[in-house]
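Case study.
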Amino acid sequence: MWYYYGNKRSIVQDYYAPEYDTIIEPFCGAAHYSLFGDHWERKVILVDKYPVVARLWKWLVKDATPQEILSLPDLKKGDKVDDISSLCEEERNLIGFFINRGVATPAHTVANYSSWNEKTRQNIADTLPKIRHWEVIEGSYEDVPNQLATWFIDPPYQYGGEHYKCPNKDIDFTKLAEWCKSREGQVIVCENTKADWLPFRPLVKMSGQKHDTVEAIWTNKKYVEELF
Ligand SMILES: C[S@@+](CC[C@H](N)C(=O)[O-])C[C@H]1O[C@@H](n2cnc3c(N)ncnc32)[C@H](O)[C@@H]1O
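After joint prediction, the assembly is written out as follows.
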C-alpha cells in the first residue's frame, strides 16, 4: 500500500502467483503481494508485530471510508503532520508513510520525496472496498495457525533488516526456517542473497536508496524446479 522500507512493490510481479484461495502474509508490512493484480480477491490474512502497521491495516480494512481518505489534506514540503490536530492516529500514520520514501516508521515532516497527493488518495480510496474481507492480526508470525494457503513470508532481512521497529535481531532465523518449511501449501520466502538461513536462490536485482541488492527466494517443493 505504501512505500515501506524493504517493500516488494517494484518486484512483486517476479514472484509466483498464489495457488491457493487463501494468502497469508505473516510479516505483512505494506502487503504489496496481497494487493498485486487480482490477489486481493482471495481470503487474505495479514500479520505484523509492529502495532503501527497492524493497527493501520485494521483501520483501512474495517473503518476507513473512501470519502474520509479523499478528504484528507494535501501537504507541502516542510509541513508537519502532527500540526494537523483533526487527524486520528491512523490517518497520521498513513500520511506519515507517504510523505517520505522507504521509511520504516511514519515520518512527521513532508520531504522532497513525498508521494502524498490526490492520485495516492484516490488509489487508497479505490482499494478500500476491495479489502473489506481481509483479516488482520497484530502479533507475531507464529500467531497464525498452520493451514493450506499461499504463504508469502517476507521477514526483515537477516542482513539489512536492522531498521524496523521489530528488527532482525529479535528473530531466531533457525526457528523461522523450520517454521517456513513446515507450512502447508505454497511457501514463498523473501530475502536477499546475503542470507543463509535457508538455501535461497537469486531472483532479481533491486535498486535500494543506498545500495543495490539481489533479491532472493526460497520456495517449497516443485516450485523450485520450475523457477530455475
Ligand atoms: C520486509 S517488511 C515486509 C514488507 C512487505 N512484504 C511489503 O511489501 O511491504 C517486514 C515486516 O515484518 C514485521 N515483523 C518483524 N518481526 C515480526 C514478527 N516476529 N512477526 C510478525 N511481523 C514481524 C516488521 O514490522 C515489518 O513490517
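Observations recorded in class. The pocket of S-adenosylmethionine is lined by residues 4, 6-8, 26-27, 29-30, 32, 47-50, 53, 140-141, 154-156, 164, 166, 171 (CB under 6 Å). Strands lie at 22-25, 43-48, 135-138, 149-153, 185-192, 201-207, 212-219. We will return to this complex in the next lecture.
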